[in-house]
Amino acid sequence: MNIEYVKPQDIERRSFEIIAQELGGREIPEEQRPIVMRCIHTSADFDYYENLYFSPDAVKIAHAAIKSGCTFVTDTNMALSGINKAALSRHGCDAVCFMADPEIAETAKRAGTTRASASVDRAAMLGKPVIFACGNAPTALLRLCDHIREGTFRPALVIGVPVGFVNVVQSKVLLIDSGIPCIVARGRKGGSNIAAAICNALLYQMDAL
Amino acid sequence: MNIEYVKPQDIERRSFEIIAQELGGREIPEEQRPIVMRCIHTSADFDYYENLYFSPDAVKIAHAAIKSGCTFVTDTNMALSGINKAALSRHGCDAVCFMADPEIAETAKRAGTTRASASVDRAAMLGKPVIFACGNAPTALLRLCDHIREGTFRPALVIGVPVGFVNVVQSKVLLIDSGIPCIVARGRKGGSNIAAAICNALLYQMDAL
What we know:
Strand content of chain A: 5-15%
Structural class of chain A: alpha/beta
Helix content of chain A: 40-55%
Number of helices of chain A: 11
Strand order of the largest sheet of chain A: 1-6-5-4-2-3
Oligomer: homodimer
Largest sheet of chain A: 6 strands, mixed
Number of strands of chain A: 6
Distance between the termini of chain A: 41 Å
Order of helices and strands of chain A: HHHEHEHHEHHEHEHEH
Radius of gyration of chain A: 17 Å
């Protein structure tokens, strides 16, 4: 068995070299490239070359939000746990997830909705710039679209990468059509790992600026 | 946009119906089916129908370990955060991840190895039945294979689903060849989400027994 010896600190760099090599000459706009590559890195799934949608100036808008010290709101504790806390802190940002709050469970139960939907209502009350990263629940995206339409909550950017089979594809189309700045994995794919990867890619890009 | 109305508590059931429908008549051994389906559910990636390998009696062995109140050890905090804590507690099991321990970082730095590898050495000292779930670092699997070969640590079951490009494929082949009971996603794919999905599927199966 041919094990390639790579120093621990070089494994990520070597992985990105391999991904770049396999992408070959495929064109990706410069500012989107690290995000596409990090999604492939986290999933070993080259579909993310095809399915990622960026609204106009999405990356620039994300960077401005990070510069303003925004809060990343996730729809799972898994995504929250995947966001690099040192990178957040370098840029004066923080990250929260409301899904495990007992109060959210109570509100959702009373309203006959999901905790993810109730979490969006909670995020709307933060009163500061938000990057909303949805890697799990299309119901969160649908609720976000309600808020955007009614003018009650407008995140600086929405990362719309829920995964699955029930209303996932539709929720992403609605999000794109809402006109909000967004980065979306079209189709069924996505996940908490993809949501965290996109947050981290945006933060690491700022390190390099 | 055609949004399907599904009650929150029915979304998962409906998703599994869709997955079963799309799998059509494809044959999966009965005890492996919920695991394969939960991997597809968490990734929307039907490759997991093709790439999951189960060593002989892997599911039965996992259930026996759970029955004995084993500890799930993960190689990322993301995987740890994805394991259902209520399900763990129903079966008298627990879950840990050593990756963020300052002591592990120190040991790894001294040894010129990865934190994942040092975490395996730490897990070897638990002195109780372990299900080791690796969703990220092939270096953890390689270190596990050393322990298995030398007889210094033998988990009840290894969930070998690291993701990526450097030594990932090789580490999985070595794991399978070691003869340890294992569930493996062959090839490059896997991830913390897949590791957590397999742990949860095994726990939920026990609920249904």
